[in-house]
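User: Predict Efflux transporter outer membrane subunit's structure from this.
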Amino acid sequence: MRAFFLGVLPATAFVLSLSGCVLGPEHRPPELAGMPAAFKHEAGWRALGATPVATGGDWWASYGDDTLNALLADLERDNPGLAQAEARLRQAQAALRATRAGFAPEIGASASSTRSGSDAGAGNSHDFSLSVSWLPDLWGRVRREAEAGQAEQQASAADLAALRLSLQASLAQQYIRLRVLDRQHELLVGTEAAYARSLTLTTNQYDAGMAARADVVQAESQLESVRAQILELVDQRARAEHAVAVLAGQPPSVFAVTVEERLPALPAVPAGLPAELLARRPDLVVAERRVAAANARIGVAQSAWLPDLSLGLSGGYRSEAFRDWFEAPNRVWALGPSLAAVLFDGGARSAALERARATHDEAAAAWREAVLTALRETEDALARLRALETRVAQQGRVVELAAENERLVTNRYRAGLVSFLEVAVAQNATLTARRAELDIVRDRLEASVELVAALGGGWQAPAN
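Assistant:
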């Protein structure tokens, strides 16, 4: 027995000294050649407002809308899509714990009681044993698997953050559309009242012989057209409200957003460089962590070429009677290493290694594509905000001119100098200009949400 230990222990110590080896390339975060130092359209949005977008997870606070804040809190708590992503994250965490269990030895116990016999006689056998087995991580296979599992777990966390940001942005944009629809409804209701007064005026002038019947028909047609637009807005608002309800995790039938005159504030988004963008966008963290996981699996595939060594120790008692179970002569034990290696596999290991390398190359290309997409989305949002900032001032001037023209034409009509057709044209031009102005307000708010989402919403990747 002593000679056995003297022979086994040096070999075991040598094997353990090899367990520091780790096969496979070390992961280095991928880099994109030609990364710009600044955004092309960055100068167009620095002065959009006085309040910067909040850093951290509550970016929506910069819009200064309590209802929006409450709805996003409902989304965080009740949205089923987020619940699914959180469950996937827990799956990844459990898988990582299962992989790390490979570092520890496995301990087992067994007990049995049998009676067997032959023509020569019968006897009892009572066995109890305790075993310990350990597969040393000689070539770093378990470490690479744990590295891949950790990267996947981090990717799942970033996936959850990316989905949360996407849902938050969708809810904010739907809410903005709903609020603008309320303003447009208010505009149309006021226009309906004005058109009703015009119809009364035209009818009175017709009764006095100062206007033709065609003017009365024109005024009635204009009034009914506005009423039809109001009904259309009611339908659009209902659908926008239903979309907000589902995103907030609520049944549309029991959900309602009260009408408010005030629109969310337009925040100013602080300048950010592309290098900062890469750390703030969770979808880019997902892509980079997929590269890290694929890189670790190259080492796993390489370790398949080398033999596995397992160390085992077992001991117990065997006796024909329970009363003699724990007596010294009935003890049994076994100790020793075992080495196993695949000598021929028909090229399966080569194919697995080639596949792992190709998967890594695919993940790296996907990361580069994700970075370019992120830069494009940011530039698109910046360019849109810049264009809309110019358009809102121009459209304000259009509204002023249309209102002035409507006032002048109405006065001429009252004096009997023009037909009601000119009044109708002027009134419709004013209504169209005011609705276009509200559309630009909506587009600016939506574009600001797009920019916040493109910059990652203030989300920060956890330390690796």
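DSSP finds nine helices and four strands in the chain.
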